[in-house]
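Budget justification, computational time. The allocation requested in the original proposal was used primarily to generate structure tokens for proteins on the priority list. As evidence of use, we reproduce two of the resulting records. The first is shown immediately below.
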Amino acid sequence: MDYRLSTIPHLSLFLPMPFKFESLNIRNKALDLSVEIDELAKAFPKHEMFNLCSQIRRAADSVILNIAEGSAGQTNPEFKRFLNYSLRSGIEVVSCFFIARKKNYTDENEFKKYYEKYEVLIKMITSFRDKLN
């Protein structure tokens, strides 16, 4: 699915070029995972709605939001700073999964699946960050 606003015909006059972050693989992976986490959190107990559900959703969203914000015409050192925030948020998502697993809100297979997905994403962000001058 293409998430660029510039693909909407009546907006293409206003947005002739996509934002820089739209072409980044790390952004696309983070977006997909954010959507998955949102769906997953819906299955958590209702009493966690304003606690763990909210925390894991905000952390997953923060990964992509920091990638986008950092890419917005910033210098490479500034972009790296935002990528570091993104990495920390990814680690926060993983930490939330440890809590969810300990409280039996997720099974071992689901835990492993998302642990591995976030491990890949964190390695991708780290590699991307390290290649910036």
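The second record produced under the same allocation is shown here.
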Amino acid sequence: MALAVNLPMTAAAQDSTSQRHGLWGSVAGGYSSSIFSCDNCNAHRRDGVGLQFAVGMALSERLLIGIEGDDWFRNQNDVHSEFANVAAAGYFYPRANGNFFVKAGVGVAYYLFSNASSLDDVGVGLMAGAGYDIPLRGETFITPSVSFDFGSMGDKAGSRGVTINWLTIGAAITWQSSSSVSP
């Protein structure tokens, strides 16, 4: 009985020590909650849908770099609301053979509110988060994660200190190449 219980756990443990080499990518979705705020407006938390994509390459077994795009959107009462962040990002695995990682990046943030007219702007974007790669098969993983995105637009159209932020809790399908690519 003990042997039957230990065999699957040993196989899963061996799968989780996959080496990170070459190219990788992921596509994610999940629940997301956002806030648009400024010094002279009322900030309200809004629930919506979060989408993420990322592509990049492994610099080592512990450090990956890439481009990540995070998006929050909501359609309600004929108003489309969207926040986006595209960032150059780093993904750090504290253990070379571990599956837990933290990520951070800097880039460009954008917001859009549209109905009969539209309001949009671009500013500096930051992102941070964490996740855990769970092996599915071969080079494919399911990756539960949490991400926080922030954008600062400064003073715009009579509003001071315009910022956006959103938190996304979701899961990704991640692909990691097993072949090496020289940076």
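A brief technical remark on that second record: The two ends are 48 Å apart (CA to CA).
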